[in-house]
């Protein structure tokens, strides 16, 4: 297993109940870190519709595409009785979205710098009929060597790993996707994740993509379906709920 895949699969947790431990690799500056272990993440996951709506919506909104996400985050913070760790995460998301968290960072010289998504996600029946998989997502702002062939400056590599699963099939239909939005340039897109990089050819299934996100603050959602196949077995398809990432490409 590669170092990048090990980073992607560093932690295990049930995403609808608790978040995973923080990973060992260096985090990207001006990113929102993972939720601490043992903390319910439902309030953070509730931001998903607002983020997807901002990605799909018009780019010429006067107050910026992040306005709806900001409003939702502020409402959650003001109205729910949240654990202190979730309050801190929402506050960090708000400062990331409104720009008060600072500008673009200088990336570390030794890499890759990795931005873990906020929490792992579950795939029901991905390993067996009664065996679920925990999926983790991460982003690697360029320039970096991983995931292959390596994101260049202004690009982001996205990696999703489904722990305990077999090799992915060559064709993923329906696919796992990353939906992304650059808050500073208002560019956005939806890109399928594939196994073209062959990060873990023998499993666990690891899908990736290199995306022209441009430089700026990026909001991303990874979710969708995964199809794997063991030797002499029929393909198995399962679905993973979305997980969220907030990071900066310098």
TrEMBL record:
<keyword id="KW-0614">Plasmid</keyword>
<protein>
    <recommendedName>
        <fullName>Secreted protein</fullName>
    </recommendedName>
</protein>
<feature type="signal peptide">
    <location>
        <begin position="1"/>
        <end position="19"/>
    </location>
</feature>
<keyword id="KW-0732">Signal</keyword>
């Amino acid at each position: 297993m590669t170092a990048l895949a090990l980073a992607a699969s560093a932690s295990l947790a049930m995403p609808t109940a608790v978040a995973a431990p923080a990973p060992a690799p260096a985090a990207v500056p001006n990113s929102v870190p993972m939720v601490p272990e043992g903390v319910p993440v439902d309030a953070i996951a509730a931001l998903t519709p607002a983020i997807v709506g901002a990605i799909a919506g018009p780019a010429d909104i006067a107050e910026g595409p992040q306005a709806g996400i900001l409003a939702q985050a502020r409402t959650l913070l003001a109205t729910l009785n949240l654990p202190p760790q979730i309050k801190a995460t929402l506050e960090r998301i708000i400062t990331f979205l409104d720009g008060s968290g600072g500008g673009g960072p200088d990336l570390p010289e030794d890499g890759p710098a990795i931005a873990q998504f906020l929490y792992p996600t579950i795939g029901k029946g991905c390993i067996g009929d009664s065996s679920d998989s925990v999926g983790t997502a991460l982003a690697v702002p360029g320039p970096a060597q991983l995931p292959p062939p390596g994101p260049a400056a202004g690009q982001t590599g996205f990696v999703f790993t489904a722990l305990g699963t077999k090799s992915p099939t060559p064709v993923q239909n329906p696919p796992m996707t990353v939906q992304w939005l650059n808050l500073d340039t208002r560019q956005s897109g939806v890109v399928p994740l594939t196994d073209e990089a062959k990060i873990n050819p023998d499993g666990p299934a690891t899908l990736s993509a290199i995306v022209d996100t441009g430089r700026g603050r990026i909001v991303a959602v990874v979710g969708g379906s995964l199809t794997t196949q063991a030797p002499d077995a029929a393909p198995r398809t399962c679905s993973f709920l979305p997980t969220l990432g907030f990071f900066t490409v310098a």
